[in-house]
């Protein structure tokens, strides 16, 4: 079964870094930084960024990569 998932990502091209900020599926909505200008909720931050890392790894293995210089 397919599940629609939405992830809001901050991308820092200069640092070649991506960070998941929010995760939402039909049953879960999680926010890494629930309070503005405060540190993240580490449990949520770790969980949604682990998901992001795994998802990006799958995309890379399938050939979805940015050309060099982007």
List the helices and strands and how they pair.
Layout: E1 6-12, E2 17-24, E3 29-31, H1 42-61
Antiparallel strand pairs: 1-2, 2-3
Give an overview of the whole structure.
This protein has 70 residues and is an alpha+beta fold. It has one helix and three strands; from the N terminus they run βββα. Strands 1-2-3 form a three-stranded antiparallel sheet. The longest helix has 20 residues. The radius of gyration is 13 Å and the shape is flat. It starts with 5 loop residues before the first strand and ends in a 9-residue tail after the last helix. The relative contact order is 0.17.
What's the short version?
The protein has 70 residues and is of the alpha+beta class. It has one helix spanning 42-61, and strands at residues 6-12, 17-24, 29-31.
Shape: flat
Helix and strand composition category: alpha+beta
The secondary-structure element order is EEEH
Helical fraction: 25-40%
Q: Provide the residue-averaged pLDDT.
A: 93
**Strand residue percentage:** 25-35%
Q: Main β-sheet, in a few words?
A: 3 strands, antiparallel
Low-confidence stretches: none
Spatial strand arrangement across the major sheet: 1-2-3
How many DSSP H or I helices?
Answer: 1
Q: What's the N-to-C terminus distance?
A: 34 Å
Alpha carbon gyration radius: 13 Å
Key traits:
26% strand; alpha+beta; 70 residues
